[in-house]
Design a protein that fits this description.
By secondary structure, the protein is mainly beta. It is built from 5 helices and 13 strands. It starts with a strand and ends in a 27-residue tail after the last strand.
Length: 234
């Protein structure tokens, strides 16, 4: 699973995806479920062929269209790739092609070490900014309030994340740069084909402070490596 990640400066995302008019957001080093996060999706009415995508702000934790604006009692901030076409919360968004990309600059996972858990920061060695594969939906409450929300896809872990996330052996679906358009605009088969574990030799990881466990802590120090960690698998 992936329950914490990082969003950095908006200007970097705008340059990377060449999407103009992205809604304003604040840099966060500890994004937690239910937060409002930036996302990029295919525009329903593109301004031009050169600008087919749009930037939006979405609630992290998908509220299905049929839920009438009420978040499910079960968690929906992650969606297993294996079940996006069958899980009730996600299958309709998948069938309608409501795919999105969640900009990120890193994420956190926890390694089980006996009775304790050690958090790790994970980033990419080849890119400062990257995108998670996601799904989005729109749900209208009984009072007419509209909730726009999203989920982040997860898959079987690569070697590095298998060692870190050693209880679940999962990792977020990180998109390769050349696959962004296929994920946003390709057919179901093409979109599924790009969902592959990111190469572990293009990723970096190090242990960080347990402070990241509380979303109340949100500062750059959370990403700094610990100088001493006992019993790590890495």
């Amino acid at each position: 699973m992936c329950g914490r990640y990082i969003i950095r400066e908006q200007e970097a995302a705008e340059r990377y995806w060449r999407v103009h008019g992205l809604p304003k957001w604040v840099t966060s080093f500890n994004v937690a479920p239910s937060a409002i996060v930036p996302a990029i999706r295919r525009a329903r009415a593109p301004e031009s062929a050169d600008a087919p995508n749009e930037g939006v702000l979405l609630r992290w934790g998908l509220v299905p269209y049929w839920a009438r604006g009420v978040p499910p009692r079960y968690t929906t901030f992650n969606a297993r790739v294996e079940r996006i076409d069958s899980a009730p919360a996600f299958r309709d968004a998948w069938a309608r092609g409501q795919r999105c990309i969640l900009p990120a600059a890193g994420f956190y996972e926890w390694q089980q070490r006996g009775s304790s858990r050690q958090p790790f920061f994970i980033g990419l060695a080849d890119r400062e900014v990257f995108g998670f594969a996601g799904l989005w939906d729109r749900s209208i409450g009984a009072d007419g309030t509209v909730t726009h929300s999203c989920t982040l896809l997860t898959m079987d872990a690569n070697r590095l994340l298998t060692e870190i996330h050693n209880t679940g052996h999962r990792m977020p679906a990180i998109l390769r740069e050349e696959d962004h358009e296929l994920w946003l605009a390709g057919g179901p088969g093409d979109a599924r084909a790009v969902l592959k574990p990111y190469a572990d030799d293009l990723m970096v990881a190090w242990p960080v402070s347990p402070r990241v466990g509380s979303p109340k802590n949100d500062d750059e120090d959370l990403t700094h490596p610990l100088t001493e960690v006992q019993g790590s698998l890495l």
